[in-house]
């Protein structure tokens, strides 16, 4: 029924959305523990010719990020 | 070519020495080894269970011992594990895959799951209303698709809670 998401998302993203929806439906005590699992603190950096490019946050943090050391 | 014939005749001979288990429908003495795993936790780890009910993408199914090998993607829905007797435990899973291996093993890998008792119906109702508001609103197609996915999950949780 909702395979319309295939036009916008990968299966991985779909799985993460379902998992997030489940975590948000738990009772308060369980939800606090579960929300930590949803955090992604990944940064990636593209290297070319021995030089690193800009470090990009996969999920931009809400507050101002500390500048990564070059 | 002759080695192939030798191999196939050896297989036939080997299978005849395996005792055929008698499967009655009333009681299933055979058990299937279940491994139910999340990325952060292993709920079952090769535990002997009698029956596992899953909600596969192709429909709800119950898996008993010696099930045919198959790989099933899971919808957001209930996984019910009947270990012995009439007691069953239920978890709501967000999605994943159930793999029945040829050697009477069942592996269910899910992204996120929780026992059915850990859900709050009020939270589900509020989340569902929020998701339906986004679907009916005028955000981007991506936001609406995301809300549709979430609404499906919330509706599945609601039907799971009401059917318990």
Automatic annotation (TrEMBL), chain A:
GO molecular function list: proton-transporting ATP synthase activity, rotational mechanism
Any one biological process term the GO annotation gives: proton motive force-driven mitochondrial ATP synthesis
Cellular component per GO, a single term: proton-transporting ATP synthase complex
Pfam family, one: ATP-synt_Eps
Record PANTHER family: ATP SYNTHASE EPSILON CHAIN, MITOCHONDRIAL, ATP SYNTHASE SUBUNIT EPSILON, MITOCHONDRIAL
Family to which the UniProt record says this protein belongs: Belongs to the eukaryotic ATPase epsilon family.
Protein name listed in UniProt: Mitochondrial ATP synthase epsilon chain domain-containing protein
Species whose genome carries this gene: Neolentinus lepideus HHB14362 ss-1
TrEMBL record, chain B:
Annotated compartments: Mitochondrion inner membrane
Lineage: Eukaryota, Fungi, Dikarya, Basidiomycota, Agaricomycotina
Record-linked Gene3D superfamilies: 6.10.140.880, F0F1 ATP synthase delta/epsilon subunit, N-terminal
UniProt keyword list: ATP synthesis, CF(1), Hydrogen ion transport, Ion transport, Membrane, Mitochondrion, Mitochondrion inner membrane, Transit peptide, Transport
Name this polypeptide is given: ATP synthase subunit delta, mitochondrial
InterPro entries linked: ATP_synth_F1_dsu/esu (IPR001469), ATP_synth_F1_dsu/esu_N (IPR020546), ATPsynth_dsu/esu_N (IPR036771)
Main location group: mitochondrion
Species of provenance: Neolentinus lepideus HHB14362 ss-1
Family classification: Belongs to the ATPase epsilon chain family.
């Amino acid at each position: 029924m909702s395979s319309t998401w295939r036009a916008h998302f990968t299966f991985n993203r779909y799985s993460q959305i379902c998992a997030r929806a489940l975590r948000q439906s738990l009772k308060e005590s369980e939800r606090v523990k579960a929300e930590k699992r949803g955090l992604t603190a990944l940064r990636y950096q593209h290297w070319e010719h021995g030089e690193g490019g800009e470090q990009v946050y996969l999920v931009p943090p809400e507050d101002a990020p500390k500048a990564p050391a070059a | 070519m002759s080695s192939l014939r030798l191999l196939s005749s050896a297989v036939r001979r080997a299978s005849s020495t395996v005792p055929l288990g008698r499967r009655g429908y009333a009681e299933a003495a055979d058990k299937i080894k279940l491994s139910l795993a999340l990325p952060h936790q292993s709920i079952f780890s090769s535990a002997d269970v009698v029956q596992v009910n899953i909600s596969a993408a192709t429909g709800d199914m119950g898996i008993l011992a010696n099930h045919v090998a198959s790989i099933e993607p899971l919808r957001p829905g209930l996984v019910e594990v009947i270990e012995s007797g009439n007691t069953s435990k239920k978890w709501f899973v967000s999605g994943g895959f159930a793999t029945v291996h040829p050697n009477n093993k069942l592996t269910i890998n899910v992204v996120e799951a929780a026992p059915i008792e850990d859900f709050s119906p009020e939270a589900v109702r509020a989340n569902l209303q929020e998701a339906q508001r986004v679907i009916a609103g005028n955000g981007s197609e991506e936001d609406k698709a995301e809300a549709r996915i979430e609404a499906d999950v919330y509706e599945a949780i609601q039907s799971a809670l009401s059917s318990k």
